[in-house]
């Protein structure tokens, strides 16, 4: 038998992004839900470390210019949730965790993955959801099309994160094809 894995979906994680002193300086920046934030320390890590590592890992041309199109804070109050969604018009998206709390749940994007649920052990081939626990000073980057949500915050305090979106500036599509564009 030949077994070929196709259409991978990746989650890229980094721990201890900032030094303890840097993390403390950033930790209280997010005060309001969906408010834009500008965190130069985090932006530098994303553009100079995380994205080059990610691009090298999956074979993306290093000549693209990495642009963080937006960065905002999320404040999930006790009893609130963050609905199922994705991040259109970007290539990658990310979450930087400021507090512990309710996990982020990533969902299988294949429409037919829940049509017939066989009885089999949980593994990456059978899972329809992957749970990523909120760990302060940890960051995850994922394909922007990957649907995800945060369940009801059952903690006594607010769950805080910083989210961001990334696009690559450069050439898309194969040279000479009708789909070749420069963004």
Q: In order across it, which strands form the biggest sheet?
A: 1-7-4-9-2
Distance between the termini: 43 Å
**Structural class by secondary-structure content:** alpha+beta
The biggest sheet, with number of strands, parallel, antiparallel or mixed sense and barrel status, is: 5 strands, antiparallel
Bin the helical content.
Answer: 10-25%
Count every helix, treating DSSP H or I runs of 4 or more residues as helices.
2
Q: Order of SSEs, N→C? A: EHHEEEEEEEEEE
Strand content: 25-35%
Tell me the number of strands: 11
- Which runs of at least 5 residues are low in confidence (pLDDT < 50)? none
In one word, what is the shape?
A: globular
Identify the quaternary structure here: single chain
Mean pLDDT over all positions: 93
Measured on Cα atoms, how large is the radius of gyration? 18 Å
Topology:
Layout: E1 11-14, H1 20-27, H2 40-58, E2 65-76, E3 82-85, E4 92-97, E5 101-107, E6 129-134, E7 139-143, E8 148-150, E9 159-169, E10 171-172, E11 181-182
Antiparallel strand pairs: 1-7, 2-9, 3-8, 4-7, 4-9, 5-6, 5-8, 10-11
Describe the structure.
This protein has 183 residues and is of the alpha+beta class. The protein is 15% helix and 34% strand. It contains two helices and eleven strands, in the order E-H-H-E-E-E-E-E-E-E-E-E-E. It has helices at 20-27, 40-58; strands spanning 11-14, 65-76, 82-85, 92-97, 101-107, 129-134, 139-143, 148-150, 159-169, 171-172, 181-182. A five-stranded antiparallel sheet has the order 1-7-4-9-2, covered by helices on one side. Strands 3-8-5-6 form a four-stranded antiparallel sheet, with no helix packed on it. The N and C termini lie far apart (43 Å).
